[in-house]
Amino acid sequence: MATLSSVLAIINPLSGTTTADQKALLSDAFLRKAESLGYAPDVVITTHPGHATELADAAVRRGVSRVLAIGGDGTINETAQALRRSSTALGIVPIGSGNGLARHLGVPLNPLKAVERALTGRPVIIDSAEINGHPFFCTAGLGFEAYVAHAFAQQPVRGLPTYVRTAFRAFWAYKPVRFLIDDKQKELFSLTFANAGQFGNNAWMAPKANIADGKLEQCEIRPFPAQAAGMLTWRLFNKSLDQSAYWRGQSVTKAIVQAEGPLLIHADGEPLTLSEGRAEVRILPGSLLVLL
Ligand SMILES: Nc1ncnc2c1ncn2[C@@H]1O[C@H](COP(=O)(O)OP(=O)(O)OP(=O)(O)O)[C@@H](O)[C@H]1O
Fold first, then answer.
1. ipTM for the assembly
2. For 5-121, which CATH superfamily applies?
3. Where is the DAGKc domain (predicted)?
4. d(CA 171, ligand 1 centre) in Å
5. If you measure from the C-alpha of residue 75 to the centroid of ligand 1, how many angstroms do you get, rounded to a whole number?
6. Which of 83, 166, 231, 243 is deepest in the core (most CB within 10 A)?
7. What is the pLDDT of residue 2?
8. What distance in Å separates the CA atoms of residue 148 and residue 139, rounded to the nearest whole number?
């Protein structure tokens, strides 16, 4: 008798603003749909940070064909990092507040439709990247965006309104940073390494980023007068930031960034501090299968 192909769904109970009841309904819908398609499905709810990586890692070793990450970009990152360079494909079911990777890849934002896509879609190869060994799939960054990621992590409530409030307050407190990027001195407002084109919520830092070209877009925003902030924000959401005189981009496969003192960074929105003041970024071409 042929063995059924296994599929695992990993659910972060804390992701986004969906209730526990909505997540339970989503879990039931996944099990029903997967069984109807002839899979042997399983669902696990995460109990701690890092749990999704442990579960996905075990699934790869068991030869599970598809692993669905049901959560925000943090859960997707934790799951995807264990699937890199394996034949197990990632299904994205976005229920977070930004959903950058899902939006870039055109995954449905309706969770039921995303479940269906993850179960019926075909595996497509994409790139991933690392900053000081921390995997990222969407963007990693330094400067203002890292400053905001650190401030946002301190907020008791998640979601877009909190993010906008945090970024607005941070804008007035933040001072541009002097970086040494591959031996060139630059004072920048922000520095992004983009695998996907957006941070989430359709905020496009790298409008032309291609997630499967074996390259990262290194996007720099130089310091600008406060009165230019409105136009830059409009361009960010209008997918035209690359037309601003304050934006500069180039395709790279690796970069070394240094700054004085501890370096604040983020990887897929997750705030991190590099005490040694040095960040090494590199692309891992064609390292992940995603179900699209
Ligand atoms: N049971 C758990 N208890 C505490 N933290 C958890 C648990 N399961 C997962 N996490 C952590 O929650 C973090 C945030 O999850 P995730 O990014 O999916 O949701 P979110 O913050 O609502 O979404 P977004 O990133 O889009 O804002 C993950 O990085 C993960 O480490």
1. 0.95
2. Probable inorganic polyphosphate/atp-NAD kinase; domain 1 (3.40.50.10330)
3. 2-135
4. 25
5. 6
6. 83
7. 47
8. 14
